[in-house]
Amino acid sequence: MPPKRSLYEAAPGLIAAAAAVAAAAAVHLVLPALPVMTLAVVLGLLAANLPGVAGWTAGPARPGLDFAGKHLMRAGIVVLGLKVSLGDVLGLGWVALLLVAGVVLAAFAGTYGISRLFRLPPRVSLLVATGFAICGASAIGAMAAVRRIRQEETVLPVALVTLCGTLAIGVLPLLAQPLGLGPEVFGAWTGASVHDVGQVVATAQTAGAAALAVAVVVKLTRVILLAPMVAAAGLHHRMGTAPDGAKRPPVIPLFVIGFVAMAGLRTTGWLSPGVLEAAAALQDLLLGMALFGLGSAVRVGQLLHTGARALLAALASWLLIALLGLAAAFLMFPPA
Question: Most-buried pick from 104, 109, 160, 309 (CB within 10 A)?
């Protein structure tokens, strides 16, 4: 298909996705507790299921929405690397780093096991485990790319990780006082157990600036683990596919290399605050458009029909990672 023709077909969906992100950002300004990424998924779900709009998202807008869900997701992951300063991560100390890594590995293995226990397909279980353990929808997109998993199979994991991350925004702050959590412990708990970066910020800010600062660094420590986890999955997949000389998938996709490169660039300290703010806005736009595209492929009727086991698995996994994160938080900041 000629490039001009492809661009022409993709334009309606891309314009709709960009407009949805603008609407999500406007709502976020009024209601800061609702992250832009979560709102983008919700708007995608509405677009896919409201009469009069559903047909358009499934028809003329579909090429652009699919492009956003695949390619803009990868571009957004690259820009996400600019949020990660290795100096901040190392500033946690080796004990905290090992604890966070332990939470990620235990959450990944536990969530995968729970998903298989509820008879979810292996590839869906892998995506759910990746999203819950590392950084939500961004990690799901990265793992799907390296394992050559179809975009359609990412829809349910993205919906589940968005639902449970949104649940955390409401539930975790209610538990802080009954559990006697100080700001640092609550921030570490949030950063270690909530899925998406925006959801972490929305949750931790309820306990003040000290909690937010700890939460963001702990969360970004989980984010940096995206690269080795995806690389390991890519190597495993490469070893097990294309035995007859056919083209093998890359061990590390270019967008993951880009993510690591951007993290290294951020660590140098060369970038001005203005550049970093612009990059954060670009990341929100790219990932928001991608999540709107993925959300617009979810048909609620089908989800309710096929997703009951998946929902139970997600809730069990959410409880598991919350408990793991809380234990790690107490170990990072033991009571005096």
Answer: 160
Helix 197-204 with 36-49: angle, nearest 10 deg: 120
CB 202 within 8 A of CB 34: yes
Task: Say how far apart CA 293 and CA 63 lie, in whole Å.
Answer: 10
Q: Are 83 and 197 in contact (CB under 8 A)?
A: yes
The whole-number average pLDDT for the span 179-193 is 96
For 64-118, how does the pLDDT look when each residue is reduced to its tens digit (9 = 90+)? 999 999 899 999 999 999 998 888 888 989 999 999 999 999 999 999 999 999 9
Q: Cα–Cα distances in Å, from 331 out to 216, 233, 295, 323, 324?
A: 18, 29, 37, 13, 11
What is the rounded CA–CA span in Å between residue 332 and residue 99?
8
Question: Which residue, among 322, 320, 306, 294, has the nearest Cα to 17 in the 3D structure?
Answer: 294
